[in-house]
Automatic annotation (TrEMBL):
Keyword Oxidoreductase included in the entry's annotation: yes
One Gene Ontology MF term: oxidoreductase activity
InterPro entries with a match to the protein in the record: Nitroreductase (IPR029479), Nitroreductase-like (IPR000415)
Keywords, comma-separated and alphabetical: Oxidoreductase
UniProt protein name: Nitroreductase
Length: 213
C-alpha cells in the first residue's frame, strides 16, 4: 500500500521523502475533478522562464484511451491501472504566451506598455531561428511543473510515477498532439495498491561540489 496515510497536507519534507514511483495502482479509482484540478493548479505554480508557463497537461482518464496508450508505453500496466495518465507536454512556442502573460501586469499597473513591448520583443528574439532553445525551454520548464505535480499529488494522498518509456512519435500521432507541443513525460496518478520499490540516493558528498570543479 501507499506509504501515505494522511489524506492531505503532509509537510513538504515528508512529502518529498514519501514520494516514490508507484507502479501498481488500485483499479477503478476516480480522482474527483476538484482534487485533480487542485493538483494541476499546484503544478502550474512552478516557476518558468519569463513566466511563459511552457506546459500543457493532457489528461487521459478514459478507459479506451488508456488501452490505446498501453502499447505506446511498452505495455506498462500502470497506464491502465492508474486513475489517470497525465501527459505533460512542453510548449515549443511559449513565446506566443508572452503578450498575455505581461498584459495582466500592464492592466494592474505593475508594468508600463513600453516595458512590456520591450520584453515581448526580447522573448520573441530568443525564439527566432532554428536553434535548440525552444525545445530546451519546453522540456526544462514542463519538467519543473511535472515535479511539482508529483509532490502535490503525494500531499493529497495520491501516488504517481513519471514515465519516459513511451514512443513519442506514435503518441503524438495517435493522440493528435499539435506540432506546437513536445511530449515531455507521462505521469500516472492514482491510489497505490503496492508500495514503490525501494530506491536510495547518492550521499551528499558525491553530488555536490563547492564553488568550482
Ligand atoms: C524522466 C523519467 C522517466 C522515467 N521513466 C520511467 C518509466 O518509463 N517507467 C517506470 O516504471 N519508471 C520510470 N521512471 C521512474 C524512475 O525509475 C524512478 O523515479 C527512480 O528509479 C527513482 O525512484 P523513485 O521515483 O521511486 O524515488 C522515470 C523517472 C523519470 C524522472
Amino acid at each position: 500500500m501507499s506509504t501515505t496515510t494522511h489524506p492531505q497536507d503532509l509537510g513538504l519534507f515528508q512529502t518529498i521523502q514519501e514520494r516514490h514511483s508507484v507502479r501498481k495502482y488500485e483499479t477503478g479509482v476516480k480522482i474527483p475533478d476538484e482534487e485533480l484540478n487542485e493538483i494541476l493548479e499546484a503544478a502550474a505554480q512552478a516557476p518558468s522562464s519569463w513566466n511563459l508557463q511552457h506546459w500543457k497537461f493532457l489528461i487521459i482518464d478514459d478507459k479506451e484511451k488508456k488501452e490505446q496508450l498501453l502499447p505506446i508505453a511498452y505495455n506498462q500496466q500502470q497506464v491502465v491501472e492508474s486513475s489517470a495518465v497525465i501527459a505533460v507536454l512542453g510548449d515549443l512556442k511559449a513565446n506566443e504566451n508572452a503578450e498575455e502573460v505581461y498584459q495582466g501586469a500592464v492592466d494592474n499597473g505593475f508594468m508600463s506598455e513600453d516595458v512590456k513591448n520591450t520584453l515581448v520583443g526580447q522573448i520573441n528574439g530568443a525564439y527566432k531561428g532554428d536553434t535548440p532553445f525552444p525545445r530546451d525551454e519546453a522540456v526544462l520548464n514542463a519538467s519543473l511543473a511535472s515535479m511539482q505535480l508529483m509532490l502535490a499529488a503525494k500531499a493529497k494522498g495520491y501516488d504517481t510515477c513519471p514515465m519516459g518509456g513511451f514512443q513519442r512519435e506514435r503518441f503524438v500521432e495517435e493522440f493528435n498532439v499539435p506540432e506546437r507541443y513536445v511530449p515531455v513525460m507521462l505521469l500516472t496518478i492514482g491510489k497505490a495498491a503496492k508500495p514503490a520499490h525501494q530506491s536510495d540516493r547518492f550521499p551528499l558528498e558525491k553530488m555536490t561540489v563547492r564553488n568550482s570543479f
